[in-house]
Specification:
The chain is α/β, with parallel strands linked by helices and 315 residues long. The chain folds into two domains: 2-72; 116-314, Aminopeptidase. Helix content is 40%, strand content 13%. Strands 2-1-3-8-6-7 form a six-stranded mixed sheet, with helices on both faces. Strands 4-5 form a two-stranded antiparallel sheet. Strand 1 (116-119), helix 4 (141-153) and strand 2 form a beta-alpha-beta unit. The termini are far apart.
């Protein structure tokens, strides 16, 4: 009898332990699926928490307590130039031998036809982000393109952004960095063909100059300076130059110190084309340098967006 009772007790103990384990696993899975940031806006605001010039992102530990705490209590109240809503629209381009991944969900879509297309021939170009390296978060020109999309949306300008991974495409096709413009050409050409409504195409880059030359203070905010680049080794480059000069002049009229002007490049050691032969509406825009923070880049984008909207609406 005692032996039977001991066995029953053991089985009962094992059963209780099993139920506790199942309950823990269920609770763990539910709580661990709670998102720390429900939207792209929340994530980027987290990056820019505490000031308009300092990027911080508080990495939450993967444990039950921190997940529960962050779910019920919002301890971050970031102060930033960013406003309410981010619009991220997937621009999936199909090319032979390459499958692209659609990006994050679209929010508050602008209903008009796309008027601006933004892409990055050099997707790996980065901005200063030492505070984020430990978290594998690197701000760069791709992030800037998405913010540009949002700011233009607030000006009622529907903008599409290249969502495809150009680096993966180049690796799959055995292309090196020097062939970046050849790689981006595939996507740009198809987008132009599929989107006849486009009035401006921006190849968004980051320059390689030091911060003393790439930064200016406007309206008490630190901003990344800009420069346009036009190649002159293709037919009718004057059309691209005229459009770019017009945009640059509009910027100079409002913010004379923001732009470094329009650079015309050709000859030995220069691309000379930059895919601008595909459209007279295509220009290269470089924002800031490697020592600029993404916040300084965003300050610049905030200034540029109304001017670009004005140009597009005039076209």
């Amino acid at each position: 009898m005692k032996l039977k009772k001991k066995r029953k007790f053991k089985f009962r103990l094992i059963g209780y332990a099993f139920l506790v384990f199942l309950g823990y696993q269920l609770a763990f899975n539910v709580i661990m699926n709670i998102k720390l940031a429900d939207t792209n806006e929340d994530f980027i605001k987290g990056l820019l928490a505490d000031s308009n010039y300092h990027m911080l992102y508080e990495k939450k530990a993967d444990n039950l307590f921190s997940k529960v705490f962050s779910y019920f209590f919002n301890i971050n109240e970031p102060v930033s130039i960013l406003e309410n809503t981010f619009h991220f629209k997937a621009n999936k381009v199909d090319t032979s031998g390459y499958v692209s991944n659609p990006q994050i969900q679209e929010v508050n879509q602008v209903t008009s036809e796309p008027l601006v297309y933004i892409y990055n021939s050099h997707q790996s170009e980065q901005y200063q982000g030492d505070a984020l390296k430990g978290y594998n978060i690197t701000p760069g020109v791709m992030m800037a393109a998405y913010i540009f999309q949002d700011k233009l949306a607030k000006e009622n300008i529907n903008t599409i952004v290249m969502e495809d991974n150009l680096i993966d495409y180049m690796n799959l096709n055995n292309m090196n960095f020097a062939q970046s413009y050849k790689a981006s050409r595939v996507f740009v050409e198809q987008t132009i063909k599929e989107t006849p409504s486009l009035k401006l195409i921006l190849d968004l880059h980051r320059d390689s100059i030091g911060k003393d030359k790439s930064t200016v203070v406007i309206n008490n905010k630190s901003c990344a300076k800009i420069v346009f680049v036009i190649g002159n080794e293709y037919d009718n480059y004057e059309q691209n130059l005229a459009m770019t000069n017009k945009l640059n002049d509009m910027i100079k009229e409002k913010y004379p110190t923001l732009t470094r002007g329009v650079l015309i490049k050709g000859g030995s050691g220069n691309n000379g084309v930059y895919n601008q032969d595909l459209s007279p509406k295509l220009t290269v825009l470089e924002i800031g340098g490697p020592e600029n923070t993404i916040d300084e880049v965003l300050n610049t984008i905030e200034l540029l967006s109304p001017i670009i909207a004005e140009l597009v609406n005039e076209s």
